[in-house]
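DHS-like NAD/FAD-binding domain-containing protein
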Amino acid sequence: MQKPLIRIPYTGPLPAPTIIPRFANSITGAIAALSTFLTAPPSHLVHHQHSSDPKSTVIITGAGISVASGLADYRGTNGTYRVNQTYRPIYYHEFAANHEARKRYWARSFLGWTNLHKARPNPTHYAIKSLGSMGFIRNVITQNVDSFHSIAHPDLPTLELHGYLRALTCVSCHNEYPREEFQTQLSKLNPAWDAFLAEIIRSGALDTENPDERRSRGVQTNPDGDIDLPGAPYTKFRYPACPHCLANPPLAGDGTQTKVEIDIDGAWKTTSTAGILKPAVVMFGESIAGVVKDAAEMAVDGSGRMLIVGTSLATYSAWRLAKRALERGMPIGILNLGGVRGEELFFQNLPIGQKGEAGVRAEQASDRVLPGLVEQLRRTGFHGHKEHQSVAQHLQNNTPFKDMLS
Ligand SMILES: [Zn+2]
């Protein structure tokens, strides 16, 4: 029996990184090292592991790459946990068990959605698209729930390890519903909040991409798309029930009939025993579905190296994928501002004088380095390894992974 993979944040401090190779301590140095990393012949260690495409790279991304899109990161650039000290993400067990916790979650999510919904991918996402079409990157694994990868590069397979905010899922029947329509329902059920949201939009607090400026206007946004409002009256917030469960109340696990009841306006009532909607994200304390875990492992095993961008690998689910790559002998590259959990493990026993082919650690902004890397690879005439297998072929041969695509 496999252990379930639970999403839990690692909040300890992380030491500053050692830059590898040493010349990767500038934007141009990082570009040069990553260019060598992506174009080097496959590591001989990987050959023994039967990787299906040892020349290709799997990329793992995290909240750091969405900062340039105006979304908050979990960590400051010095690697300490959370710029906003009062932020504590909601845990799944609280959400599932507690009506009060859900009201608070949905009120904050209601306010945060506008900002998330209008945010767009940034040069990091588009550079990844280019690296994919040039044949260097075959799979993207992201911990982000903002859907920017699938918007920026719909043709490059992306596995969303922690789900996505663009949909809701029912805890009872697992049907999915679009988040955008849900927002309209929340507006109707909570007119006072709707008016308040209109007011903060008018104030311009959501227009600025500067988190400090937002804070100074009384609004704190968080990476999972919600907003902090100290002292807000969450207890009056209302949210709808799952329409499917409302029409067909499901049987509970023990075979008894559940009930789903709503008030006169359509809000979920506490007399209900099912039909709770949750965001289609893997909440903290929730397990990642087995099929997603398997697809992520397959994406790692199918590649010859791993590039980690904009993440401190704080969640065990992401960290263990990096560890898996290491154990398979895959060269590892890290591009992240601030320390990465256990990173010293990834760069032990590198050959002396290596220029990036065996490992890279750079601490530069990905929205500057990756577009520069694409340009550099184009200039030097590298076209990657696309001829081996097209993305479409790959998808056909890879059904469980295809199911994860959105
Ligand atoms: Zn349902």
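thats it. Residues 75-83, 387-406 have pLDDT under 50 and may be disordered. The domain at 5-9+20-68+126-162+289-404 is CATH 3.40.50.1220 (Rossmann fold). bye
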